[in-house]
């Protein structure tokens, strides 16, 4: 363990990975990590997140086995008491993360109950014990703990609450605020009503995870100021119709506390990815966020790609060629490695004439309930379907408006039109906040100078880690 520096408070230490969090008396250490879905079963597209595309001899880097080995090494070395993961798949969770128990000794685990991208919290029972059953709210998972002493019993009668968050992505500032409000309020009510804590407003609470937003977003401002109202606008919309107030004092950003000495630098970015927006999105458009359009350079590249695949003459002009079924299947095989998967395939099929069958009514005449995905009729490319150039562009515009910059960049490269990517986008979307009754005593920074994921980084996110002690002044 190497100490990089100390700040104004001698008890606060900064470490840089690779390093372990020290085991300190009467403290709790937490690691939070968005591990990037797909895991071993759910999803197939992970190779597209590597930019530039992986070359010969590098194909294993995107596999779950390789990524899992990197996760095992990192989580094992850090050796936190509690590990909060985001983006785990319920389809293969037990198999994918068996190493957490078998190899690393995390014998306590709680998996979030709903969703495809789920949070999961692990803990070591020889260090902490669960004080009440975990509570599952809207994309937040609350686990109250008591510290365990060397003899196996509880250190004291105090409780430590860990809220594992994966807040909603996209233009959903209001929902993110509600998720934080609900999670923190649940922790307060648990402390007050279930655990009968004497001063629940001074709850020992750690709120960590992927917030899907930086310091300017409503969820962060809500935590730091303790209240938020209809005057706060995010993405052009109010985040709340009325004033919301946290039931506890404002929380502290544990990773940028005054006691941490980084030589004047801010906490490191946790999202480090290729900078693609400036290359892809048309500049100077006021609707660039809500309704982005491609830059002229990308449009030129897509036009060239279309012309290389199109082989079917148009009825009115045999010198003008369009993409038929075999052309589209050739394109899809290159970008998705096979036909029949991906939003590019589904949207192309619709443009080419595939129509989803109508909902079948039951015997009473009312519409039947939601049809399970496995029971839906297959999507297919119509034999006589045509994908014209505008619709081909439309397929990729849909990808752009879903924020799949990485997928478009990979496709362009695979199709011989690689973008001149030079810069890296850096943002801090993963956070760790603590209530005023706690103090960060150690923080562990993970730094990457290159875009993630990569051969050495299993996710597009980097972890955040810290150890906490009770604030004796509260």
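-> sequence recovered:
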């Amino acid at each position: 363990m190497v100490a990089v520096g100390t700040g104004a408070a001698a008890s606060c230490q900064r470490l840089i990975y690779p390093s372990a969090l020290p085991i300190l008396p009467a403290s709790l250490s937490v690691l939070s990590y968005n591990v990037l879905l797909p895991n071993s079963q759910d999803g197939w597209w992970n190779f597209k997140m590597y930019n530039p595309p992986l070359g010969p001899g590098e194909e294993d880097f995107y596999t779950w086995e390789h990524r899992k080995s990197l996760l095992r090494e990192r989580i094992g070395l850090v050796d936190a008491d509690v590990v909060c993961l985001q983006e785990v798949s319920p389809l293969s969770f037990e198999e994918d993360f068996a190493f957490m128990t078998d190899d690393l000794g995390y014998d306590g685990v709680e998996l979030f109950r709903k969703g495809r991208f789920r949070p999961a919290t692990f803990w070591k029972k020889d260090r902490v014990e669960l004080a009440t059953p975990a509570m599952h709210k809207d994309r937040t998972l609350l686990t109250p703990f008591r510290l365990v002493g060397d003899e196996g019993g509880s250190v004291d009668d105090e409780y430590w609450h860990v809220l594992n968050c994966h807040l909603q992505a996209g233009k959903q500032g209001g929902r993110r605020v509600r998720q934080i409000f609900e999670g923190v309020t649940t922790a307060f009510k648990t402390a007050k009503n279930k655990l009968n804590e004497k001063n629940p407003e001074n709850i020992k609470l750690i709120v960590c995870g992927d917030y899907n937003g930086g310091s300017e977003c409503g969820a962060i401002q809500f935590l730091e100021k303790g209240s938020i109202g209809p005057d706060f606008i995010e993405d052009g919309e109010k985040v709340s119709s009325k004033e919301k107030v946290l039931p506890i004092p404002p929380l502290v950003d544990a990773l940028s506390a005054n006691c941490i000495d980084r030589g004047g630098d801010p906490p490191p970015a946790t999202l480090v990815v290729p900078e693609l927006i400036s290359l892809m999105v048309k500049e100077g458009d006021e609707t660039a966020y809500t309704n982005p359009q491609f830059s002229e350079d990308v449009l030129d590249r897509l036009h060239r790609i279309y012309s290389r695949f199109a082989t079917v003459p148009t009825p009115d002009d045999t010198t003008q060629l369009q993409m038929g079924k075999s052309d589209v299947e050739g394109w899809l095989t290159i970008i998705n490695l096979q036909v029949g998967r991906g939003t590019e395939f589904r949207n192309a099929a619709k443009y080419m004439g595939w129509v989803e069958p109508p909902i079948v009514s039951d015997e009473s005449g009312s519409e039947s309930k939601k049809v399970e995905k496995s029971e839906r009729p297959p999507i297919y490319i119509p034999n006589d379907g045509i994908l014209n150039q505008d619709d081909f562009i439309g397929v990729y515009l849909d990808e752009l408006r879903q924020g799949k910059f990485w997928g478009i960049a990979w496709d362009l490269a695979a199709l011989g039109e690689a973008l001149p990517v030079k810069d890296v986008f850096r943002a801090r979307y993963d956070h760790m906040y603590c209530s005023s009754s706690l103090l960060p005593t150690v923080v562990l920074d993970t730094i990457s100078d290159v875009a993630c994921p990569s051969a050495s980084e299993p996710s597009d996110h980097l972890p955040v880690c810290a150890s906490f002690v009770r604030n004796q002044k509260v």
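The chain has a mean pLDDT of 92.
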